[in-house]
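Worked example 3 (structure in, sequence out).
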């Protein structure tokens, strides 16, 4: 897919989106913005008329692309689509002047228009974003070109551009999620690796269910996946090339078990847990040379390591204090410092791509929670609570967390959920069946 720009007047929408509660406001004679108040957030009303089909082959794509864009934005909880039945204006040409008064009359504050042309297996999508109340374009028009099979990606790219211009944050729609697809009874689950678009579309299975697989993790460039497999009868870490779907074992040392792998920001170093002689410590491995370094040396169980975005620190879980807690240490090893301090047990810590927060699983008083805290352990916030919530993973922009939620009882099934870091907009992610262990990719190139 290629990307290029068409020149239109640029106009940037000012916006503040923080982790607290917020309300919408239109400054007098100023741009639309989202301001922090003590109220509950009111989603920003927007309109996405069906894109214009510029030739006969583009008709179905034009309508479907507009629907995916609307779904992406509305799914954030920050936006509310005004349905087509309420539209006064009808967009019949991509270059026609915008009837701002008609869109203002139905309270649309943002308007997305676009056009699609298709020829053979190629498709071109162009769009514009408008601030209805200021009566001006919101940034430059953009145009994407690619294969007809990539039409959903182009829709996600349009939605990412609109989201970024309105919120001032990076987008996350043009991304994928690797997860464990499950089937069978609860006490005898078959598990295989699968990957999908962030919204559950375009599922591709990467392994069969012959061997138990756990904890897949994308590389920083999204071209490889680390995971744990019981193919040998014991847990061992593997790395898979996403394009070829070929996997190879890493650090195969007799008499050891390796698990919980994750890439460093350099995409070359792998941090993981290794169990030997009944003791579990954290190691790093150079995936090119095979050189291994031990980072912890404790009789405790130390696992679930995750690098900071700058690669200078590692957060992990350990029971060295007697209960499962979260610690941070230098990336090269050294004395860890405990950062979790509340009641209960803490695990599966993951550093935010922004570098400002650490997500975690917490168990307390019979309930499981997904939470976030500052990197020094302060400002802990619990975002969810249920029978079993675990295993958070961050969206590429650090705004949304996906995790596994399992229902109670003999027939309980795992499913994927997402939640905003403010604790709002809890949603189930669409999958073809039971699913667990999600891991978000970076934005696709």
């Amino acid at each position: 897919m290629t990307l290029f720009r068409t020149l239109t007047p640029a106009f940037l929408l000012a916006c503040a989106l923080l982790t607290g509660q917020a309300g919408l406001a239109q400054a007098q004679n100023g741009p639309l913005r989202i301001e922090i108040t003590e109220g509950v957030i009111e989603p920003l009303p927007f309109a996405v008329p069906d894109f214009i089909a510029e030739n006969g082959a583009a008709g179905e794509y034009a309508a479907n692309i507009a629907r995916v864009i609307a779904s992406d934005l509305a799914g954030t909880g920050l936006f509310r689509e005004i349905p087509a039945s309420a539209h006064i204006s009808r967009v019949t040409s991509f270059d026609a002047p915008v009837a701002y008064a008609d869109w203002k009359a139905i309270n649309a504050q943002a308007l997305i228009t676009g056009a699609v042309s298709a020829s053979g297996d190629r498709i071109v999508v162009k769009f514009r974003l408008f601030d209805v109340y200021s009566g001006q374009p919101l940034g430059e028009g953009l145009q994407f070109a690619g294969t007809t099979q990539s039409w959903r990606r182009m829709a996600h790219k349009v939605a990412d551009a609109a989201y970024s211009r309105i919120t001032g944050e990076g987008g996350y729609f043009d991304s994928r999620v690797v997860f464990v697809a499950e089937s069978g009874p609860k006490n005898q689950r078959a598990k295989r690796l699968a990957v999908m678009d962030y919204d559950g579309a375009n599922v591709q299975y990467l392994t069969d269910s012959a061997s138990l697989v756990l904890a897949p993790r994308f590389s920083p460039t999204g071209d490889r996946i680390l995971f744990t497999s019981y193919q040998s009868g014991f847990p061992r870490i593997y790395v898979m090339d996403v394009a070829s779907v070929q996997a190879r074992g890493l650090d195969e040392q007799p008499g050891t078990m390796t698990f919980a792998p994750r890439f460093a920001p350099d995409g070359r170093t792998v941090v993981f847990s290794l169990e030997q002689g009944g003791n579990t410590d954290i190691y790093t491995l150079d995936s090119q040379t095979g050189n291994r370094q031990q980072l912890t040396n404790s009789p405790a169980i130390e696992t679930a390591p995750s690098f900071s975005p700058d690669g200078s620190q590692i957060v992990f879980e350990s029971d060295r204090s007697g209960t499962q807690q979260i610690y941070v240490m230098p990336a090269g090893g050294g004395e860890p410092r405990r950062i979790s301090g509340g009641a209960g047990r803490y695990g599966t810590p993951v550093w935010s791509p922004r570098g400002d927060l650490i997500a975690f699983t917490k168990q307390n008083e019979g309930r499981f929670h997904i939470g976030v805290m500052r990197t020094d352990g302060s400002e802990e916030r619990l975002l969810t609570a249920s029978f079993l919530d675990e295993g958070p993973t961050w969206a590429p922009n650090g705004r949304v967390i996906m995790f596994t939620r399992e229902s109670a009882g003999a027939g309980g099934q795992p499913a994927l959920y997402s939640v905003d870091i403010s604790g709002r907009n809890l949603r189930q992610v669409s999958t073809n069946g039971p699913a667990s262990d999600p891991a978000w990719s970076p934005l696709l190139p």
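Notes: Confidence is low (pLDDT under 50) at residues 1-29, 34-40. The helical segments are 59-74, 100-105, 151-167.
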